[in-house]
Amino acid sequence: MIALDERVGDDRPEDLERIGNLALQLGVELNEDAKDEAAAAVGMWLFDGSTQKLPGGYDLGELSPNSPVKELKSFPQDLVLVGRASILIKGLSNRLDIPWSLSKEWAPIARQVLNRNNVQTGGAATNVSDSQRIRFVVVWKALKNWAKGRVTKAVTDLPGPLRSRVASILVKLEERKSRRALTTRPSSSKK
Prior knowledge:
By secondary structure, the chain is an all-alpha fold. It has two domains: 2-133, no CATH class; 158-190. Helices cover 60% and strands 3% of the residues. It has helices spanning 2-6, 13-25, 38-47, 80-95, 102-120, 136-156, 160-190, and strands at 29-30, 72-74. The model is unreliable at 125-132 (pLDDT under 50).
């Protein structure tokens, strides 16, 4: 995701090689007669909806005879649901004429998770042991922060009357939460 987000151009050899190598590291296997740009084209086609032109002359259409999908020999099971969801969202965003890219959405989260992991391990980039693996809790917290930011932006973009209604609901929820916290404290202090 970070490599796709940071690429300088869709036809720059260094970027294509990096993206292609990372796609292959995910477990994507290509046909023996695939073009050199096939791995990068698959990665860009699948995870970056903002791409207008795929490298190697591949077409963006999944059903096209010149689609990068035709170059796939096997695809890792771990990525099937991500791939399906990405294709569905790309289709909807294209139909609604809303630019969308999975790599643009996930790259900040990926950077945050990788930076936390790097800090926790003291910056060592050696073999990944159990203590160095990215923990689900770290990913979950990053995802929650991302979602909170998206919800905040969505609420601030609402028209005034709707925004006021949402704000009043949130205030009521916070009041209930505070009341619950106050009522549970005295009973827990008696023990």
